Every structure is written in structure tokens, then in C-alpha cells.
Amino acid sequence: MNALRRSRWPIPVLMVLSPLLAEVFSGSMPATDFFRPGMFLPFTVFVYGLPILVLREVATRTRTGLLGLWCLGMIYGLYNEGLISETLFHPLDPANDAYGTLGVVAGLRIPWALYILPWHGLFSLLTPVLLTHLLFPEQADRPWLPKWATWVLGIVTGGLAIARFVFWGENRGVQDGGTFLLHLAVVLGAALVACLVAARLPRGPRVVAVVDRPGARWLPFAAGAGLYATWFVGTELLVSIVKAPWPVVALYTSAAVAAGLWATARVRATTRAAAALFVLGAGTTQAAVVVLLIGLLVGDAFRALSGAVFVAVYLTATALIARRQGRAAQSAGEISRAGS
């Protein structure tokens, strides 16, 4: 019985981590709002928890690699931004005002979609899954739900989201019938494409026990920070500061996505700790730039303080994981020398 109870701990951890990282640590929602009973339960169960859990189960059962897991996270982005919050569609309220009327084609915010879908892949699915797997390594490669439960939860959550969009969504009231059906087809079609692409992406980097170079354990953190700075901060600068034409923004974002995936695919092997350091590097940069720095620039003391706390949490987690990784590499080296 105790073993069964322990086996279920990863599920609530994942369901809480996903909205916490995507909403609170990104600065999108104050922690004071997130932990209100009327907000906490819907976000941890319906908005994030169950669809994220289903995608994790799909990735585990199909042995999808890290790149594929990231791509599956874009399906969650379509679920969230397309069917639930509906930020992909003009003239509904955008999540970011800079993208409100930028690159609108047939009522679709193209640059915003290219920006936010990979963002959800990184922070809503890949990051919480990697951190949860690191906390529960014995269960990282196992399904947590029976196959029938995964199917039921997937059908129910997806079906409810589609029903909400079709019958009660805001977009239904502002679009003509043809445009509305086009939007629904785009969301469902893009989700299907993402699923097919995820299945065909390389299954690497291969997850191994320890890294070969113990001195290089901080490199994944730096790589994650560099990716976020180049990809997401670069896109934000093009949109908000440079005011670049939307095709330029779309090309830049697409090129950054392709370059990031290509660079990741070239890594033959990694560890769970190194993969976690990579996403922590991205998260730390986001907290430092989007939350702390923006809070200081606009004179928002609460946002700036929150950003400082988030950066401290990310760096503390990074230091602990890097130390653990270093000890594992040192132990492996000692065993190898003793064997020779």
C-alpha cells in the first residue's frame, strides 16, 4: 500500500508544477491569485493538470524523446491558447498587447502563435515533466496511469475543451460562421501535425546515468539561458522595440525554433539532471528578464520582488542539481578507475 501511495506522488507534483511554472514564474499571474481556492483547483486540474498528464502519458507509452515531448507541448499550447483562453484569434483580447493586431491573417495572430506554442512546449510540458522525473527517477520511464485511463482523460479533456470553444467560447460571437470553422480546423489540424511530427523527431538526446565530463555540468544551464535569450527575448525585442514587420518576426521565430531543435538533436546523450539544468537556464532567464527586469523598468515593486524570488528559486535548484550531478560523475569516475 505504501508503494502504491508513493507511485501516485508524481501525478500531483506534475499537475501543480505545470501551472505554477507557466503562470506564476512567468509573471503572467501573481502567486496571490494562483493560490486562491477558486483559481488553484481549476488551473491545477482542468486548465493544466489533466491535459499535461495525458500528454506525458502519451510520450511515455510511445517512447517519445525530449524533442518530441517539446513538440507535444505545442499541442497543449493549442489547447490553452486556442480552445480555452482563445488568445490566438483577433479581435479577442491578446495575452500580449504587442501582438494584438500584428500579423493577423483570417483572424489568426500568426506571430503570436509561432511564439506562444513553442513557449508552452518548453514551460508547460517539458520543464515540469523533466523536473518531476528528476524528483522521482524510479518512475520516470513508467506510465503512471492505465492505458484506458489515459484514453478516457484525453477524450474527456479534449472533448470538453472543443465543446467549450464551439458552444460557449468568445470567438464564436465575434466571427462569421466560415471564419469560426476555419479557426477550429486550424487548431485541430495543427494539433494533428504536431502529434505526427513528435512521433518522427529524433528520440535523442539519449538519457544516460552520468555525463562523461563532470566539469561541463553547467553548460546545459548556459545553453538553456542562451536559447531563451535568442528565441523568446529576441522575438520580444523585434515586436516591442524594433517594431519589425510581422513576416520578419515570423521568420526569425521559425528560424530560432529550427536552430534550437537542431542544436538539441546534435547532443547524443544527456542525463535527467543535465536536461533539467537546460530548462532551468531558460526559466531563470525568463524570470530575470520578463519578471524582475520589467518590474524594475515599469516601477512595479511587487513584480520586481516576485522576479527576484523566482530567480533565487531557479538558481538554488540549479546549484543543488549541478552539485548532485557533479557527485554522480565523480563517483562514476572513481568506479571506472578502480575497475581499470
Radius of gyration: 20 Å
Q: What is the helix tally?
A: 14
**SS-based class:** mainly alpha
Order of helices and strands: HHHHHHEEHHHHEHHEHH
Shape label: globular
Regions with little confidence, pLDDT below 50 for 5+ residues? 1-5
How much helix is in the residues? over 70%
Q: Quote the average pLDDT.
A: 90
User: How many distinct beta strands?
Assistant: 4
Number of self-contained structural domains:
2
Portion in beta strands: under 5%
Instruction: Describe the largest sheet.
Output: 2 strands, antiparallel
| Quaternary organisation of the protein chains | single chain
Give the termini separation. 43 Å
Looking across the biggest beta sheet, what order are the strands in? 1-2
Structure overview:
This protein is an all-alpha fold. It has 2 domains: 1-203, no CATH class; 211-340, no CATH class. It has 14 helices and 4 strands. The chain has a two-stranded antiparallel sheet with strand order 1-2. Helix 6 crosses helix 7 (110-135). It is globular and about 60 Å long. The model is unreliable at 1-5 (pLDDT under 50).
Brief write-up:
The protein is mainly α and 340 residues long. The chain has two domains: 1-203, no CATH class; 211-340, no CATH class. It is built from 14 helices and four strands.
List its salient traits.
mainly alpha, globular, two-stranded parallel ribbon, disordered N terminus, 2 domains, two-stranded antiparallel ribbon, 340 residues
Spell out the blueprint of helices and strands:
Layout: H1 2-8, H2 10-24, H3 31-34, H4 37-47, H5 49-61, H6 66-84, E1 104-105, E2 108-109, H7 110-135, H8 147-168, H9 171-174, H10 177-200, E3 206-207, H11 219-242, H12 246-265, E4 269-270, H13 272-298, H14 301-339
Parallel strand pairs: 3-4
Antiparallel strand pairs: 1-2
Helix pairs in contact: 2-4, 2-5, 2-7, 5-6, 5-8, 6-7, 6-8, 6-10, 7-12, 7-13, 11-12, 11-13, 13-14
